[in-house]
């Protein structure tokens, strides 16, 4: 990431939404979304998420202790393994994020950003789309930037205490609790502070919420999902349901459905090209996943109680098929190819249990294909169990279990239809109030993090098409104007307001195209961008503006870069 001041004039259009404009279909909305604020419902949601987390973990540990006291050492070991191993994986990942965010090696970037932000000049911070993403950073400006000062004694003690505190938190497997509490604190601060500090704390709260949602989603499908299947298998084989078994299975099921809905809500809240999800929609989505995952896990448990070996083969085959399908879809979630492959493998685990959107476009078709496959698998697994069930089980009990699987899946499908037909957000914020020149492509676009509208970079105009010979004659020879303003598209109701030059305040220009929903924006994934944004937001008197690269075709860019 390099910081440089190129002196290019930057203009502000107050009526343009942060949309990435590219290609021939360019539409500019005329309604700016209201700035989001932390509400009492958000606070209550975070507290409920903490309650779900504690109930899931405590019920599993309590059940493991009960198995040990009953001398069921095999079930005790499996239950404990599905608690400890996923938790350790999540703690390692969380501590790795903390170490990067708090490391000394990146202080030069943040110090340079703070110095340039304080200068008040039109500044651009760029991150190049290179193979060495996540590598070091450099700073350039018209003058030399001062290096980071030596840490004082008090500051060094604070940093050492923070390292010890975070190490203690992660060793005792409490990273999720700390992040929830920290997000709650940041959200409350964003309500109490002034306007500038409010935006700063809200950004930090959104970053923390994104980290929590990713960590908890990973933990849920590594811990809660296999734990739920395991306890259902034990219940079927033992032909009895202990109170702690029912409590543990219920807590795991609620945790799974809760985290899928919570992840989708935080993801939508982080993007201004998507309308936020209401809490009514979140509750309905929880019920949707609650019943569909419940039916899926019951079918797994029934089949595994009779065919243990074949059940393992089936899970591996289904995971491989789903992972291959996701990879073929060419997702765009991570910042590197290998991270993307690992992400696709993790989503393949999610697809073993439920639907999870990973790419925009033709979602209904992909969801229909997945739903048909899952329905056929559930029917086949339940049928195989029914034909090979324990002879001591009565036909009435067997039919009741089969009806429970079918009714649970039907209820889940019903709530899915309710969500998509009545409560699903209306999609991207769009409008038709402004017309734009037909062949002009805006170079940069704003991110969802900024509350200000995007800037249109006026120099150099990289994507204007060449003037042909016939056009030159119509322009009146060599003394005519070089650039002409083209007529607006049909349906335009008003002309664009004049652009007022703006040279103050920092501009964080990300040399990457903006990722399409349902992927996170790059500044939520790339922690270098996070640090720069937070330092600029805290140091600059004006809210920094984030611009993503929105260019036409690469051929045009290269052609006109070499000829202008």
Can you walk through the features of this model?
59% of the residues lie in helices and 6% in strands. By secondary structure, it is mainly α. The longest helix is centred in the middle third of the chain and has 44 residues. The chain has a five-stranded mixed β-sheet with strand order 1-3-7-8-4, covered by helices on one side. The protein contains 16 helices and eight strands.
Strand content: 5-15%
The end-to-end span amounts to 26 Å
Q: Which oligomeric form is depicted?
A: single chain
Run of helices and strands: EEHHHEHHHHHHHHHEEHEEHHEH
Instruction: Compute the average pLDDT.
Output: 74
Based on Cα principal axes, name the global outline. Answer: globular
Helix content: 55-70%
Q: Count of helices?
A: 16
Radius of gyration: 27 Å
Please summarize the sheet with the most strands. 5 strands, mixed
Which class do the helix and strand fractions yield? Answer: mainly alpha
Poorly predicted runs are: 1-34, 110-149, 427-503, 553-564
Strands in their spatial order, largest beta sheet: 1-3-7-8-4
The tally of beta strands, per DSSP, is 8
Helices, strands, pairings?
Elements: E1 2-4, E2 10-12, H1 40-69, H2 73-102, H3 107-119, E3 123-127, H4 153-171, H5 175-192, H6 195-238, H7 243-269, H8 279-304, H9 308-328, H10 337-351, H11 363-387, H12 395-423, E4 444-446, E5 455-457, H13 469-475, E6 500-502, E7 506-513, H14 522-525, H15 527-539, E8 545-549, H16 554-563
Parallel strand pairs: 3-7, 7-8
Antiparallel strand pairs: 1-3, 2-5, 2-6, 4-8
Helix pairs in contact: 1-2, 1-5, 1-7, 2-4, 2-6, 3-15, 5-6, 6-7, 6-8, 6-15, 7-8, 8-11, 8-12, 9-10, 11-12
């Amino acid at each position: 990431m390099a910081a440089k001041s190129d002196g290019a004039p930057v203009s502000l259009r107050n009526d343009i939404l942060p949309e990435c404009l590219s290609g021939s279909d360019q539409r500019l909305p005329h309604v700016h979304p209201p700035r989001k604020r932390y509400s009492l419902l958000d606070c209550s949601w975070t507290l409920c998420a903490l309650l779900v987390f504690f109930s899931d973990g405590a019920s599993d540990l309590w059940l493991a202790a009960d198995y040990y006291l009953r001398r069921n050492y095999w079930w005790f070991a499996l239950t404990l393994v599905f608690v400890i191993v996923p938790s350790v994986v999540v703690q390692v990942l969380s501590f790795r994020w903390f170490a990067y965010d708090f490391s000394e090696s990146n202080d030069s970037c943040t110090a340079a950003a703070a110095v340039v932000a304080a200068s008040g000049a039109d500044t651009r911070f760029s991150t190049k789309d290179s193979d060495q993403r996540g590598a070091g950073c450099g700073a350039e400006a018209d003058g030399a930037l001062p290096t980071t000062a030596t840490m004082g004694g008090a500051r060094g003690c604070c940093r050492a205490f923070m390292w010890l505190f975070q190490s203690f938190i992660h060793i005792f497997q409490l990273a999720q609790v700390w992040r929830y509490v920290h997000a709650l604190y940041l959200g409350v601060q964003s309500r109490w502070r002034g306007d500038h500090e409010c935006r700063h704390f809200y950004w930090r709260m959104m970053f923390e919420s994104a980290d929590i949602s990713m960590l908890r989603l990973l933990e849920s499908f590594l811990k809660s999902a296999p734990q739920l299947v395991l306890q259902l298998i034990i219940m079927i084989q033992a032909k009895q349901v202990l109170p702690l078994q029912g409590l543990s299975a219920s807590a795991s099921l609620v945790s799974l459905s809760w985290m899928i809905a919570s992840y989708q809500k935080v993801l939508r809240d982080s993007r201004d090209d998507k309308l936020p999800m209401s809490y009514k929609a979140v509750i309905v989505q929880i019920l949707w996943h609650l019943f569909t995952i419940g039916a899926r896990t019951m079918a797994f448990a029934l089949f595994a109680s009779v065919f243990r070996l074949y059940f393992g083969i089936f899970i591996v085959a289904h995971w491989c098929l789903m992972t291959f399908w996701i990879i073929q879809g060419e997702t765009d979630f991570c910042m590197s190819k290998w991270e993307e492959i690992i992400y696709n493998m993790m989503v393949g685990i999610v697809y073993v249990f439920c639907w999870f959107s990973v790419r925009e476009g033709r979602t209904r078709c992909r969801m229909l294909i997945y739903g048909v496959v899952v329905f056929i698998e559930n029917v086949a697994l339940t049928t195989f169990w029914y034909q090979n069930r324990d002879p001591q089980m009565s036909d009435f009990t067997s039919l009741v279990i089969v009806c429970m699987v079918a009714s649970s899946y039907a209820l889940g499908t019903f709530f899915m239809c309710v969500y998509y037909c009545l409560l699903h957000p209306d999609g991207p914020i769009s409008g038709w109030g402004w017309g734009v020149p037909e062949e002009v492509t805006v170079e940069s676009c704003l991110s969802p993090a900024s509350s200000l509208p995007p800037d249109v970079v006026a120099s150099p105009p990289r994507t204007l098409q060449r003037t042909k010979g016939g056009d030159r004659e119509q322009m009146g020879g060599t003394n005519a104007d070089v650039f002409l303003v083209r007529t607006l598209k049909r349906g335009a109701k008003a002309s664009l307001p004049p652009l007022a030059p703006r040279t103050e305040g920092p501009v964080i220009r990300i040399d990457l195209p903006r990722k399409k929903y349902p992927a996170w924006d790059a500044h939520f994934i790339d922690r270098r961008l996070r640090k720069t944004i937070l330092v600029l937001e805290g140091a600059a008197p004006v809210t920094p503006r984030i611009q993503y690269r929105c260019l036409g075709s690469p051929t045009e860019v290269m052609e006109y870069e070499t000829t202008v």
